[in-house]
Amino acid sequence: MEYLSSDKVAVIDLASGEVSEDELSEDLVAQRIGGAGVTAALYEQHKDGDPIVLGAGLLTGTLTPASSLAVMTAKSPLTGTVVHAPLTQYMGQELKYSGFDYIVIRGAAPEPSFLWIHDGIADMEPAGDLWGKDVWSAVQAVRQQMGDELIQVLGAGPAAEKGSNLAQVMVNQWASGDRFGLGKLMAAKNVKLIAVRGMGLLEIAEDDDFVTRCLEILGQVKSGAWAGRQGQGDLGAALGFDDYAAWLEPLVHRSHSSFNTPFAYNTFLFLDDDPSLLEESAQSEPGVLLGDPAAAGVLRAMGLAAADAAAVIKACAKAGLDAVAAAKVCQAQGKTAAAEIQAALEGIDGTVVGLSGPFSDWAPQGLASDAASWKRRMAVAYIFGIDPIFALMAPEISEEGLVELAALGTGLEITQDSLDAVVADLCG
Amino acid sequence: MDFYRAYRAYNLSLAQSVPGPEAPAAARNSGGVYPRLAVYMGGGSSHSWLWFTQLFERLGLHDLTFLDQDGIISGGLAGCHGLAISGGDTFGMAESLGPAGAQALERFIREGGLYLGSCAGAYLFLHSSKKSLDLFNWVPAKITNLSSRLPQARELPDKLCTPYGCSYVYHPVREAVQLAGCGREPWSGAAEFEAPLYGGPAMIASDDTQVLARYEGFTSRTRYLVEPDLAAETLLNKAAVLRADMGKGVCYLFGPHFEHPQYAQANQLLADAMYWDLPAQSHEAAPLTAFERVAARAKRAWLGDLKREVSNVRVVALGLESHPARWLIGRKVYEPAKLRVFAEAVWQRLRKLERVPRLVLPETAVELVAKWKAVTFCVRLLYRDLHRGNDTQCVAEELFPELNLASARFMEVYFNNLLEEPNQGRRACSVA
User: Fold this and answer.
1) Distance from C-alpha of A382 to C-alpha of A393, rounded to nearest angstrom
2) Is 0.90 topped by the overall pTM?
3) How many Cβ contacts (< 8 angstroms) between chains A and B?
């Protein structure tokens, strides 16, 4: 695979520690396009190893607006079905430029390990000293060990190590779109972290036309319905959360985007410092990044003040817990006061209800006209590597435009028919 | 055809002893020799020896050896037609080479060798009364950027000067300067052109030394470290490039870095100068080094191990690139960005080595991996200490020479693989 590709798939056998490499065939890309289309195919190919398959979308890390997505495909310990967890912020582009298009992680390691992916090299490193650390400490430790703050980390927290169904795979210090307990699966494989640094280069088949088309789409997005809006407050308003922005406002420090995402829908909340602070905070952990629209929404609905809700979300981030699931379990147990919820997080477990389908409801269905269009939009986003929340916010990033970019970028005959076939397969 | 390709085609035909294109004009009297060239990377050198390396590679000159002071003293120049010394700490170079190194250099040139010295490599050969430097008093010229009173810095104060006894060698400007040829062979056709100045000398030559180019003016990219009037007074109309006979050999002293990869016109003039004065033969035969062709599996394993370590260094180097730390090592200020220059130079060539079907590796190939592993350890230690606010001077003093040496040892392997028959050193293949 010559374009938009490193032409390498890493297959890591955790039990033996051996890493093999396969080429990424053009046939596979022409047939499955990329992202979840390919990770699902690789999952099938390696399913005897109960794999975790990690990959970026076909357009991830390019000038395509909001092309920030990486996908983790695996069998969910909660549903027993194959699912795709969306991973945003800067994980997608680092993975895209890491020298591997896809990473298949088979089996289980004999002892706690972490994976170090860089420049087309997949190293399995001992993680005995990281095991037991909270997510934030572990991320900091691995960045210190490898010597770069820009390393992107997928992590399993203490909740995952304890086998909690609510354990989420985290992106750096923050929540991801994993609603499927894939943190638990990582820990069950004795993988504490997957650290990724991408410093490679990718070729584009028709580079001038590709860039021109990307800029056209960007222009349309920036004059679209979301122009001028930002942060979780505006996102909550679009979802019909009354007075949500005002509820958050006293804590809002800044808005924060993922890679190449034109509107910054994440919000950084300050808990332990003045939110109006412009210079860098002297506190080592001044607050928390809010990127999951449902998390604060659920806690607010339980009657928590914004500061208390943010404190719970911060604690979940450190423990590697899905804050939405943790809040719902607490609610079911009648624990609705902030102190009760905080106290319950240590060792929390439970059953997560309402999970269905291969895609995460982290991208709110309320932003789509109906369930079918939401599902199709998710499939398209996961294939091409578009931030799923942004895909719902920006219809200007059309299927037609993405198919055109895929063809321009790869030089392959990728058509609407190819896309329809992959979408149909992913959506079941 | 650009001049790089013209020289490359010519040189590769020489290397392979097959009929090739006509020699570039400056090479017509060179005797059709495919030269073996030495690049100094020993004590006092900074990263700019990599620029000479890149230029030679672009010209199709693959018979390269990378020598530190011990290599020069122990006869490493045998079989070489030319020696290039680039920038760094002139005092450090002189002290490292010492009397034995000076003697080896002098013998090499007087017996017909070609010397290409830029920046510190140019200062080294100028007359000086200072200890160690006085071992290399071979080109009678004075520098104009010397003052007993240090001018006030407009910017980059750590790049402004080098103490020189009770005086200071100061550096009036950095980056691109305008130069003009003086109408002398081999540059009789050179008019105005640009080259980057990073602390190199402005010179006034004696009558028996030829001035090939002068400082003519400044450019939009010139950064003034002192007031523009003083910069003009110090540099303009002063010699930027000298050519001097030394026994049977010739020395070229370049104030600016003519070997810098982003200055094609200066590169061409350097190449023309080199070919104008290349000796037809070296004064001794090159020593043979044991290399062994390895099978595909061994190649993959060795390259994989080396790539891992170089990549690890590259990751840290990129992360530290804009860190404000500075280290004074010898008399030269080093900044974190230099780490990446080494790492990238090796990394890009590693990618090319992957495409060589069967590698030739020295017996010390495993040691090279171990050397890079040590660099990884050291650069990560540097990172951790910087972030903890610890003093990093000792780590930096250990790291930069280690990185320098590890890079040079890699280059030896790389260029030996560009030579199809490494022990004969006269046939070349291309992986570009």
Assistant:
1) 15
2) yes
3) 45
| Mean pLDDT for chain B overall | 92
Mutate to test the interface with A, among B297, B311, B382 (most CBs of A within 10 A): B311
The CATH code for residues A1-226+348-428 is 3.60.9.10
Cα R_g (chain A), whole angstroms: 20
The C-alpha atoms of residue A83 and residue A382 are separated, in whole angstroms, by: 11
Is B323's Cβ below 8 Å from some Cβ in A? no
Check CB contact under 8 Å for B315 and A145: no
Q: What percent of chain A has pLDDT over 90?
A: 94
Two tokens, residue B226: 């002192």
Within A356-398, residue ranges assigned H as helices are 371-384, 388-393
Q: Which CATH superfamily groups domain B3-277?
A: Class I glutamine amidotransferase (GATase) domain (3.40.50.880)
Residues 6+ apart with CB under 8 A from A63: A210, A211, A214, A215, A218, A260
The residue extents of the domains of chain A are 1-226+348-428, 227-345
| Whether the predicted interface score ipTM is above 0.90 | yes
Binary contact (A146, B315; C-beta < 8 A): yes
d(CA A232, CA A253) in angstroms, rounded, equals: 12
A66 to A235, A262, A265, B409: CA distances (angstroms): 16, 7, 11, 44
Q: What does the pLDDT look like over B318-359, one tens digit per residue?
A: 999 989 999 999 888 999 999 999 999 999 999 899 888 888
Domain boundaries, chain B: 3-277, 291-419
**B373 touches A at CB < 8 Å:** no
- Report yes or no: B316 at the A interface, CB cutoff 8 Å: yes
Joined together, the tokens standing for residue A370 give 């109906």
